[in-house]
Amino acid sequence: MSQIEHAFRYNVMPLPTSMQPERGSFVITPGLAVSLQETASPRLAAGVLRAMKRMEDKTGLPLARSILLPDATAAIRVYVTSNGGAVQGLDEDESYRLEVSSSAVEVHAATTVGALHAFETLLQLTQPAGDHYAIPAVKIQDSPRFSWRGLMIDCGRHFEPLPVLKRNIDAMAAVKLNVFHWHLTEDQGFRIESKTYPKLTELGSDGLFYTQDDARELVRYARERGVRVVPEFEMPGHSMAWLVAYPELASGSTPNGIWRDFGVSNYAIDPTREETYTFLEAFLREMTTIFPDKYVHIGGDEAPAPDWKTNPRIVAFMKAHHLADNDALQAYFNQRVLAILEKLDRRMVGWDEIFNPALPKDVVVQSWRGDASLAKGAQAGYQGILSAPYYLDAMKPAGVMYLADPVPANTSLTTAQQKLILGGEITMWAEHIDQHTIDSRIWPRAAAIAERFWSAQGVVDVDDMYRRLLPVSNELETLGLQHISVEDAGLRDLAGTEDIDALRTFDSAFEPVSFSDRYKQQHTSQLTPLTSFVDAVRPDRPIRYQLASAVKELIALPSDAAARATLQEFFEKTAASIPAVMKQINAAPRLQPLQERAEQLQGLCATGREAVNYVGSQTAAPTGWKAAKLKQIEEATKPSAIVRFTFLEPLRDLVNATN
Which of 2, 185, 249, 492 would you call most buried, defined as having the most Cβ atoms within 10 angstroms of its Cβ? Predict the structure, then answer.
């Protein structure tokens, strides 16, 4: 087995349930063909052909462009029992078995979705092997740990064109995420066409919305790739776009237009009027003709609704119905909406705020408040989805989010309660993203979280995760994502030149601040151009982890030449880039806020080089050096230019390790 491991790299993500390497490999040759031995549905055939086209692109070899019907001589043979449900659901069997030998590849799956997962694994295994491409011989048995493995994209605050969503669905399928949570309505925009209530998009969208045909096309596209589409229609709060179009739904105050700022608005739908529920039933009935999924998300979060406390008619209603406060009134609203959804054969999903003992147990609670809230819901008998640790706009590194588990090993939940946790969902809120920056904010970090949702609870090796994440990230760009390439495009735009070698090196020292920090440092609105340096830089770039690892290695073993070289190269190369970057800063107004950061970086690189020498040579630093450098590092943590340094924590550790 050791010889096999030396010959091939198993860059599979998510890690399979069981993966047993065998001897030998399957060599990719021109004309390689696939046969469907059992089920031969158009959906399966289309998925296999897409996978083979990607393998063709990856190997540079012309492969078969058609599918063979049952044929034992085909080198890749696919055995699928069923196409799966007409509407993919939580109970869809996504398991597969993959067997690769030197002579053949066999895929066995209960459903088409399982086979699609198998081909994603097969593509990740395909790699150079000397003068050819090959797939290592292996036996894989695989199935997901959680049935709900989602990605939410907020298209309300900033509209995302359909091709952007499609390429992200392609990426979801590549890492075996299976729920696209489509956040379609917000204070800043109503993004889905309603023919029943056309003013929702006429007045509430700035003309940026998805037609019903667009939405049906995305649902079709996602289903072809084994991804469900769960729409979210935010109510009763975050509803200014509803109320601009139909002010009769308001609880009192009515907005003059959709909201350009971000935050929590005071406007809310009126839960006390029967007309509200007549409106919502007609709207939701229309939406069920577009979205076939069993689940509909109603939002339900952040509805302070001050009008509910001051509108005499609403106050009287609450008194007559023995509703003590706004929470009780919102629970009443949720019950009424739930009844509508049940009539439409749908199940309700909502954020933490919908959790109320008055609601039936078939409501699904999505937790943005944390593990404790999720556990509380499960203890009360409610199904739940965890999102709190997976907020991508917090700009946390993949390694941190990777270790956050929907059901951690030390959970206090009983076995029955654990089964109520359906899984998790990554969230991409859109205050600070647009069609150009969205990919870099989601990927590749979402791939690491996808592994948390799919793989066994004990898969927690962060080092190995990062080892595999780099090639997987590169692979994802072949699907059309721009999470790597967009950075250079942004830097060229900022500098006004193609000569960005120095700026690219300089850029590697920085990452975006979190949403909350950006909110404090820069007043942004829906109209703010997202073309600053902070928008070009990527979160959790590979160098961040490489530097942190090298520092740990050097501290543990000062004679580690490789770790020392990694650190010295970074600090020297980065410092050398600064003079050229300073010239560009002076000439480019959008770069000028980086003046202070550039000056700080010069000093930090000098500190880094000195610290590497002191630790590596085990030489004592001069008296007062450590205190001065720690003060310098602390100063660099203060807000500036809406970016933060990627390496301050490991640099602090390195300085503290000096004698």
Answer: 185
